[in-house]
Amino acid sequence: MRRFRHPPPCWIALAALAVLPGAARAAEAPARVAALRVTLAARPASPIHAGAAYLKETLEAAAPGRVEVQLAVAGPQGNGTAMLADLRRGAAQLAILDAESQAIPAAQLTILPFLFRDPAHRRRVAEGAEGRLLARRIADQSGLAVLGFFASPEHVVATAAGPITRPADLRGMVFRVAPQPVLVEGVRGLEVSAFPLPAPVLYGAAGQRMVAGGHVDLQTVLDLNLHEMLPHLSDSATPFAAGLHAVLADRGALAALPGDLQAVLAEAVQRAARRQMDLAEESRLRLQRELEARGAKFAPLEAAAFRDALRPTWEKVARALKAEDVLGAILNAQ
Predict the structure, then answer these.
(1) Which domains does the chain have, with CATH numbers?
(2) Does this model's pTM top 0.85?
C-alpha cells in the first residue's frame, strides 16, 4: 500500500483510532475491498463537492484495490437529519454535514453572524485547538466520530438602498434570514425585522419589496442575479456567515475497517479538508470579481462594531447549544 508523504495531524489520527478498541485486531484481518458511501449536501460544482471528490481520489489512490468511495450528493438543501440517519443505519459511512443543519446542536454554532473575523480565522479554528474542542462537542452530542471540517460558502449582506457600514444601517430593516432558528436568533442583536425565507425566492421578495436586504452566499447571488435587486453587497473578506461542515463517520463503520485503512482514511480526510479550504478561498475571490464585473457594488463594513453588537446574542445561542466553551475558544483564537 502506498503511504502519504506526510503523517496526518495527530489529533485526527487519535480521534479516528482511540475510540475503536478493535483497531489492532482489524489490522490483522485479510485484505478486502471496503465500500464507503459519502453523503453530502452541496451543489455539484461547489468547493464542498470538489473537496469530497478530492477525498475520493486521494483515498482510492492511497489504498488501490482496497477501497471504493461513492459520493451521494443530496443537493444544496440536503436534509441533515436524514444524512445522520443514513450513517447510523449503515446506509452511508461518512457524511459532510451542512453547518446550518439542526441535527447536531454544536455544529450550528459556526453559522452565527460575524463569528469569524475572516476566512483565515475560520481556517485557523478548523485546524487548531478550537476545532478539536468543537469536534469533541459534536462527537459527544451525536455519538459520531468527527474526522475534520470543510468550509461552508461565505454569506454577505445584500441590500437595495445603499451600502451597509455599521449595525445602525440595518436597524429596523426587513431582512431576509435563512429559515434556521440559530440564524433567526442570531440577528436579534442587529435590531432587524427578521424575515425567514429560502434563498430561491429572495429575488421575487426583493422585487416586490417584501424585504430590503438579507444575507446570501455569493454563488446564489450569481445564480439568481440577485445583484439586480440587491446591488449593494458587503465585502466577502468579512463574511456575514462562514460556517464549517463537519466530516462525520459512524464509529462502528470505522471499527469495521482494517486498522491501516482507518489511519489512511483519517489522513485522506485531512488532506481533503486542506484542499477544500484552498478551493473555497479561490471560489470566494473569483465570485466576488465576477459579480463586480456584472455591476454589483461591494463595500467594507465596520466588522468590530458588528461583533460588539452581536456578542450578547452569540453567548445566548451558545448556552442553548451547550457550546459556551467552544464560543470562547473561537473568539479568543488568534
Answers:
(1) 10-21+29-153+241-284 (3.40.190.170), 155-240+286-323 (3.40.190.170)
(2) yes
